[in-house]
Specification:
The chain is an alpha+beta fold. The protein folds into 2 domains: about 10-65, no CATH class; about 80-125, no CATH class. Helices cover about 25% and strands about 20% of the residues. The chain contains 3 helices and 7 strands, in the order H-E-E-E-E-E-H-H-E-E. It has helices spanning about 1-5, 70-75, 80-100; strands spanning about 10, 15-20, 30-35, 55, 60-65, 115, 125. The strands form 3 sheets. A 3-stranded antiparallel beta sheet has the order 3-2-4, with no helix packed on it. It has a two-stranded antiparallel sheet with strand order 1-5. About 0% of the residues are buried.
Amino acid sequence: MYESLLAYRGFYAEQDYIEVHKAGKPEEGTYLVPRSRRDDFRDDEVLRDQQGEVLILKKGAFVYRLSGRDRQKSASYYTPEVLTRCTVKYTLKPILERLDNKEIEALELLNLKLLEPAMGQRLFIMK
């Protein structure tokens, strides 16, 4: 689910936008274009509301859209730093507690081997 959410992006509109689509087929997906380009598109290529009015996303509106499939096509997935830090913190926490309790020596930390099969899944510590 997390990776699918990364396929979306949100932003504040810097200008007015309209949504355009393949002629007569809005169900196949729409694209945002500046409202100033309205005359570049035929009437059956512009998304309209139920009253037939052109839908306009006003400047300053928050827009949340699928950002494209570039990441999926290139298989370039990443884990945000905040999630990475959290995963590492809670994986190492029991080891650091053992260090604080003098159950292990600090030099033993240098012998730890980490396996990271897919960050966000689980970080494994092997001895």
